């Protein structure tokens, strides 16, 4: 038996919020572009990866 009409309270809240505030979607897209949709530099990425220090398996326990 498939429940196709079920909608959680959270989903109903978010859909209702977005129906009342349609500008939020555009704001999300604009802000996403601020942090995530940036040109990538392969040289910079290679430099960052080369400068990483290996981390021990469990950092909270120092076993000499």
Percent helix, as a range, is: 40-55%
Element order: H for helix, E for strand: HHH
- Cα distance, first to last residue? 58 Å
What number is the mean pLDDT? 86
What class would the helix/strand composition place it in? mainly alpha
Number of helix segments?
A: 3
The Rg value, from CA coordinates, equals 22 Å
Shape: flat
Low-confidence region ranges = none
Compute the number of strand runs: 0
Oligomer: single chain
Describe the structure in brief.
By secondary structure, this protein is an all-alpha fold. It is 53% helix and 0% strand. The chain has helices at residues 9-20, 23-35, 42-50.
List the helices and strands and how they pair.
Blueprint: H1 9-20, H2 23-35, H3 42-50
How is this structure best described in words?
With 64 residues, this protein is mainly α. Helices cover 53% and strands 0% of the residues. The protein contains 3 helices and no strands. The chain starts with 8 loop residues before the first helix and ends in a 14-residue tail after the last helix.
Keywords, separated by commas or semicolons:
single chain; about 60 residues; mainly alpha; 3 helices; about 55% helix; about 0% strand
């Amino acid at each position: 038996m498939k429940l196709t009409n079920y909608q959680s309270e959270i989903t109903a809240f978010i859909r209702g919020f977005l129906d009342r505030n349609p500008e939020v979607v555009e704001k999300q897209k604009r802000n996403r572009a601020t942090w995530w949709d940036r040109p990538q530099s392969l040289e910079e990425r290679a430099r960052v990866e080369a400068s990483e220090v290996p981390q021990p398996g469990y950092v909270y326990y120092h076993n000499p």
